[in-house]
Each structure stands twice: as structure tokens, then as C-alpha cells.
């Protein structure tokens, strides 16, 4: 009997693992346009994005292309889970947090109380909105000799010289 042979054609498909490559999301600000594009790698393109659990900030939406956009209308910390699915049906879920703040504003009363030479002085500057903690600094001019402004917004010390002192304070929040 003669030798026989048979060939078979095989197809091997190498599948890469789908991975969500989006890092932490930026903070948002009430009344200010927000737009972030989520990203993934591996798997089979195209990807489809959807909200799995939780709630996006009011005023924002997630498109199937992975774009979170809109204008936030309320402040808060919003935790949600997003699912990305590739063309072959692989999916990955990832949890994200968006912090939405209101506009930063100095709320200290004006004018501040006048210091007296030789008498210990203390006055706390205040702010609202933004994302705490705040950092305060002089932004022009100088405080009366003997007084300092701390990063927490406390003006303190014992004034040593009379006079009119013009100065400006600046507050910076920690996030937006």
C-alpha cells in the first residue's frame, strides 16, 4: 500500500488582553465645561464604553466612545464604575472618582480688624469653594512689621510699627 498524507490548514488567533489604560480623572468645577476621553488597549477594536454602577456628576454623561463630557451642575465626590467592551466581547470594569467643586472665593470680612502696636494679634482669613486644603500667601505689598501670614491663612504676631500697610492675599485650592 502506498504512503498517504493529508494536509490541514489551521488558523491561530492571538488575542491580546483588553486593559483600561485611563488614569485618575481630573477634578471638575460647577458651571465649567468638562471633557475627558477614556482609553483602553489590547483586545479587538472598536471599544464600547458604558456606565456599570454608580452615578456621574449631575450634568455629565458618558458616550459609547468613552468620552465623559458636559457641564457639572452640583458639587460633590462622585464614584462610578465604567465598563469597556471590545469587538470580541471581552470587557473590563474600572472604578473612577470625579470631585466637582464650586468656585473658590475669599469669604473673610473686610475690612479686617486693625492691629495695635505691642498687642498680640490674630485674624483668620477664610475661603469657600474649590477643593480643600487651601494655601494662603501674600500676593503683593507687605503686612505691618511683626505680623506674618501662615499658609493656613492666619495673620498673627505683634505689630511693631504704626502706619498704613497695603497688601494682597491670595488663596489657592488643592485641586481644580
What features would you describe in this structure?
This protein is mainly beta and 176 residues long. It folds into two domains: 19-101, Immunoglobulin-like; 105-172. Helix content is 0%, strand content 41%. It has no helices and 16 strands. Strands 2-9-8-5 form a four-stranded mixed beta sheet, with no helix packed on it. Strands 3-7-6 form a three-stranded antiparallel beta sheet, with no helix packed on it. A hairpin with a 4-residue loop joins strand 14 and strand 15 (154-157). It is elongated, with a radius of gyration of 29 Å. It starts with 18 loop residues before the first strand and ends with a strand.
Secondary structure elements and pairings:
Elements: E1 19-20, E2 28-29, E3 34-37, E4 40-41, E5 48-54, E6 60-62, E7 67-70, E8 76-85, E9 91-101, E10 105-106, E11 121-124, E12 127-128, E13 135-141, E14 147-149, E15 154-157, E16 167-172
Parallel strand pairs: 2-9
Antiparallel strand pairs: 1-4, 3-7, 5-8, 6-7, 8-9, 10-12, 11-15, 13-16, 14-15
> Helices and strands: which structural class?
mainly beta
- Form type: elongated
Q: Distance between termini? A: 83 Å
Q: Which strand order does the major sheet show?
A: 2-9-8-5
Q: Give the domain tally.
A: 2
Look at the structure and give the mean pLDDT: 88
CATH structural fold name of the largest domain: Immunoglobulin-like
Return residue spans where pLDDT drops below 50 for at least 5 consecutive residues: none
Q: Main beta sheet, described?
A: 4 strands, mixed
Measured by DSSP, the beta-strand proportion falls in 35-45%
For the secondary structure, the number of strands is 16
Amino acid at each position: 500500500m502506498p504512503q498517504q498524507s493529508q494536509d490541514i490548514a489551521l488558523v491561530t488567533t492571538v488575542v491580546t488582553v483588553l486593559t483600561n489604560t485611563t488614569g485618575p480623572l481630573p477634578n471638575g468645577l460647577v458651571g465649567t465645561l468638562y471633557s475627558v476621553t477614556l482609553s483602553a488597549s489590547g483586545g479587538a477594536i472598536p471599544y464600547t464604553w458604558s456606565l456599570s454602577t454608580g452615578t456621574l456628576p449631575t450634568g455629565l454623561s458618558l458616550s459609547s466612545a468613552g468620552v465623559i463630557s458636559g457641564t457639572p451642575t452640583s458639587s460633590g465626590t462622585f464614584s462610578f464604575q465604567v465598563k469597556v467592551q471590545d469587538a470580541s466581547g471581552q470587557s473590563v470594569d474600572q472604578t473612577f472618582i470625579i470631585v466637582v467643586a464650586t468656585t473658590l472665593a475669599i469669604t473673610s470680612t473686610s475690612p479686617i480688624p486693625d492691629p495695635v502696636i505691642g498687642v498680640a494679634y490674630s485674624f483668620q482669613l477664610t475661603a469657600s469653594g474649590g477643593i480643600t486644603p487651601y494655601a494662603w500667601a501674600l500676593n503683593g505689598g507687605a503686612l505691618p512689621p511683626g505680623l506674618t501670614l501662615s499658609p493656613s491663612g492666619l495673620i498673627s504676631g505683634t505689630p511693631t510699627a504704626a502706619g498704613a500697610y497695603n497688601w494682597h492675599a491670595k488663596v489657592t485650592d488643592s485641586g481644580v
